[in-house]
Amino acid sequence: MIKVEFLGPIGKAPIEMEAATLADVSAKLKEDGSLTSWLEKCAVALNDTMVNDLNTPLQAGDKVSILPPVCGG
């Protein structure tokens, strides 16, 4: 099992799922209509390291963070 957390204004509780790659996570999250617009513009971190390759393999216990864009001042 891996844990997926949603940061910032996404406002969704963390979930756990079985997934072999980030592509699997993406496919499962796209099934949730409330996340569709967020997924297009969010960055992804795996165990607190930014990643952008959906073929990245996952292992049990990994943490995937969905990070929405932010503005700074």
Structure description:
With 73 residues, the protein is of the alpha+beta class. The chain has a single domain, classed as Ubiquitin-like (UB roll). It has two helices and five strands; from the N terminus they run ββααβββ. It has a five-stranded mixed β-sheet, with no helix packed on it. A hairpin with an 8-residue loop joins β1 and β2. It starts with a strand and ends in a 6-residue tail after the last strand.
Q: What structural class results from the helix and strand content? A: alpha+beta
* CATH C-level name: Alpha Beta
Q: Into which percent range does the helicity of residues fall? A: 10-25%
Q: Sketch the topology as an H/E string, one letter per element.
A: EEHHEEE
- Average of pLDDT: 93
Which value, in Å, is the CA radius of gyration? 12 Å
N-C termini distance: 38 Å
> What's the name of the CATH homologous superfamily?
Beta-grasp domain
* Low confidence ranges: none
What order do the strands of the largest sheet run in, or round the barrel if closed? Answer: 2-1-5-3-4
In terms of DSSP E residues, the strand content is 25-35%
Summarize the structure.
The chain is of the alpha+beta class and 73 residues long.
Describe the secondary-structure layout.
Elements: E1 2-6, E2 15-17, H1 22-30, H2 36-39, E3 43-46, E4 49-51, E5 63-67
Parallel strand pairs: 1-5
Antiparallel strand pairs: 1-2, 3-4, 3-5
